[in-house]
Amino acid sequence: MPKSDGYKNLIPANKRSKDEARKLGQKGGIKSGEVRRMRKTLKEHLLLLLSEKSVQEEICLAIIDKALEGDTKAFQIIRDTIGEKPTENLCVSSVNMNLQKSYDEVKALIEAERQKLIEENRHEIPLIEYD
């Protein structure tokens, strides 16, 4: 049995009247704007606090303390910040394919495949015109 049966009384937006759906959409848009403004002010406050040298120093010291206690994530942050992040090697093998086909070459390839299918299936498959 589900924890809550509250979902049973929900009405989908496409089952509501246009006016009701519009009002609910408007409420959602207003709330979204409020949240966006709140996040913006939070970001501005954090940037203002972080612009103070003493705050930056306190944060750096806290990260160093965490790293000294054995926190590997704090160590990674320090290592990456000072520019000693190890390079990540990515091995990619690829097949050298010539993808520079003209329209006529592609059309000829499609027609050849179409003919092969006709022979295999013994019935006509209509050609799709791309012009």
Q: What labels describe this entry?
A:
about 130 residues, mainly alpha, 2 domains, about 60% helix
Per DSSP, the total helix count is: 4
* Uncertain stretches: none
| Oligomeric state | single chain
The mean pLDDT is 81
Q: Tell me the count of domains.
A: 2
**What is the overall silhouette?**
flat
H-E string: HHHH
**Secondary structure: helix percent:** 55-70%
Separation of termini? 58 Å
Write up what this structure looks like.
The model has no long low-confidence stretch (mean pLDDT 81). The protein has 2 domains: 16-81, no CATH class; 98-131, no CATH class. It has 4 helices and no strands. It has helices at residues 18-50, 53-68, 72-81, 103-121. The radius of gyration is 31 Å and the shape is flat. α2 packs across α3. With 131 residues, it is mainly alpha-helical. It starts with 17 loop residues before the first helix and ends in a 10-residue tail after the last helix.
Task: Provide a concise account of the structure shown.
The chain has 131 residues and is mostly helical. The chain has helices at 18-50, 53-68, 72-81, 103-121.
Question: Helix and strand layout, with pairings?
Answer:
Elements: H1 18-50, H2 53-68, H3 72-81, H4 103-121
Helix pairs in contact: 2-3
